[in-house]
Amino acid sequence: MLFNYLKIALRNLLRSKVFSIINIAGLSIGLACCMLIILYTKDEVSFDAFQAKKDQLYRVTCTIQQTDGTRNKLGIAAMVQGPVFKANIPEVQDFSRVQERNFIVRSGSETFHEKASWADKNFFTLFSFPLLQGNPKTVLSDLHSLVLTEEMAEKYFGTTQALGKKLEFEINHTFETFVVTGVAKNAPQNSTIQFKMLLPFLYQEVHEKDASWLWLSYPTYILLHPSANLQAVEKKLNQAYLRFSQKERNEARKHGFKDHFHWGLQPFMAMHLDTGTEYTPRAGNPMYSYILLGIAAFVLIIACINFVNLTVAQSLRRRKEIGIRKVVGGQRSQLMRQFLGESFLLCFVAFVLAIILAEASLPFFNKLANKQLSLSYLFDYKLVLGIIALFLITGFAAGFYPALVLSGFDPLKTLNNRFRFSGKNSLAKGLVVLQFSLATFLIITTLFIYSQFDYLTHKDLGYNDKNLLSLTVGWSSQEDSPTSLRQQTFTNEFRHAPGVTHVAPIMDGDWLTISKANGVDLDVAYKHIDEHFLSTMQIPLVEGRNFSPAYPADSTQSVIVNEAFVKKAGWKGSAIGRTIDFLNGNDTKLAIVGVVKDYHYGSLKEKIGPVLFSPNPSLPFGRFLIRIQPDQLPQALASIERTYRKLNPYRPFQYDFMEQLNYKNYKEEAQWKQIITLGAVLTIFISCIGLFGLASLSMQQRTKEIGIRKVMGASVLQLSQLLSQNFLTLVLIAFIIAIPAAWYATHLWLENFAYRIEISWQIFAVAALLTTLIALVTISFNTIRTALANPVNSLRSE
């Protein structure tokens, strides 16, 4: 009997190939999508969970309230906070500071750009990063000790057996030798703290001792006693800060410092999904995890219910088979077991295909999500039990309903084709509305994401970032002042390179400082430039003039500001000749000689703020901006590299184009644009399967009606319109539901950008057109086939 059931099931699958493929494919894709999203979400919520002391570990945070009332929460501290908090707060058992920096590393005659982190000697006892070689208690105790990951040990020495080997690190323009005292396993990819090379923080404390409480740059982690009260400890942190920093704060107030610092503790496990705290490495936005989980749950539910609907629609074609089985003595329980068995067989095939699909698409998904996920992540007993339960529920649901209904057919009516399946299919119709509501929602939001991304990457930035090379030379000492021989040599050599039209030295990095003008305290972005910067960047002057060698006093007494500075200072009319009364702790009055048009020196997520430009001769330049003619790009790059290697032989030649750097500002948006698009495509596909199933069921119910209409003279076009009308009504209802939800979600998302597109009706119209076309194409197969059918066949039994 079992063999007979299996043979019948296979025959039905082969007889209805299209139905079978669509049915299994829909469930398989839904399951595979769900598996991938569960992998992603599990990785996000399990960040740092491998840390053995995670429940006692906290990150020190500092909330800064600025003079204008704005608040910024930072995940960093100064050098002194960790030691002082441990010495004065009993609940603090230990602390560790970890600071990543860029270094030039020399191995033999070769040099490399690398990231390395300063870390306290207790790093490997506080955190759960296994060592392959070395003692975790002493591996960072020596002033010149060095810990490499196995990846770095292989890179530099070709083996993980690297103890005692040496590398040189450039520190303050001098190469210091560090000896490998440990080799660690590569940091897990779901770790907030990432490292490839570790240097002893002790070296910094000896050579760069800093007792300031206000200059924040060190991520600091503390270990609390298990019974510690978090609120009580935070109160003690602030009491210690007020007590030990009082003298420094009083001195800072004399130079215009009025910001208020409030110290707090953030649970270690809460760091990764906290986008509100600045200086959080590899922070993930929880909103996207919620969106993906919502899509996964919805797609899976829809896929399962579609599976049930299509199974029912296909089962109705087998009513004669059921009638014959009942006539020859088949029991209702036997028929139910047959249908349930077939359903579980289909589900099993779908689940196997889903695993294959998930595994096959995992490399693409990892690239898309910037992850290193593996299906082994699903081997969690809770998830495995959940998948087994899902398999049983889906198989039972898909088989039970048709088994219950069809096994109860009157064999006489079924054999005479007099059986009529009644019902308005309200559940199926509601499901289609729900499906297309989500599909339309995703189409609308996807179109807005594309429009905003296009706006971000094509908006006029106020300067020309095309063919503009950014080359870092890494100077930061007084000997490399604007008038130094090396500076002048580099500038002249670059200017004579073929294809180079403009060269401008500029300060490397960002410098935010405080100033005062017109009695207003201003937070400003400070830019150290020379007279060639504006022409190289192609930034226009609104009024006044540029810096010029013809005005020797410019270097010490003059500044240029942007329009935002003038507006924030509250000046009316011309700003030329007005003075900056206070800048970066100095009371020297600086005259404004020019005002430039506002330009986007950051990303379009940020509002343009006040900017001040100065040619201060006491500050070094660390970077060059070089504009190149596009038709001579290879020759110019080769010449610039030769000059660089001749004058700066020990530093690797590394450059970026400003256009690429600006594009990187929107890396997250580009990533999620692809993910949401993929989610939209999958949801549309699943929705189309649901609509196809409902259309198929409806056509079977209306076969005789269509036959009668054709006999009465109805044309194929009229019949197609009649059959499509009800389904298009469902799609219209779905669109009406999706519009307000999509508008609200898009509005919330666009608020993340200081500069954004307007929410326009055209995008909603395009989405409506796309949704309607998709629905028409989906149902056209069934409607046209039914309209073209010979009416004699449908009326024969009458």
Alpha-beta content class:
alpha+beta
Low-confidence stretches: none
The tally of strands reads: 24
Largest sheet: 8 strands, mixed
Taken as a percent bin, the fraction of beta residues is 15-25%
| Termini Cα gap | 36 Å
Indicate how many domains the architecture comprises. Answer: 3
The percent range for helix content is 40-55%
Overall geometric form: globular
Instruction: Give the helix tally.
Output: 25
User: Could you tell me the radius of gyration in angstroms?
Assistant: 35 Å
Mean pLDDT, all residues: 82
Describe this entry's structure for a reader.
This protein has three domains: 2-42 and 285-455 and 667-795, no CATH class; 57-271, no CATH class; 468-664, no CATH class. It contains 25 helices and 24 strands. The strands form three sheets. Strands 15, 16, 17, 18, 19, 20, 21 and 22 form an eight-stranded mixed β-sheet that branches.
Entry keywords:
single chain, 3 domains, 6-stranded mixed beta barrel, 18% strand, globular
Summarize the structure.
The protein is an alpha+beta fold. The protein is built from 25 helices and 24 strands. The two termini are 36 Å apart.
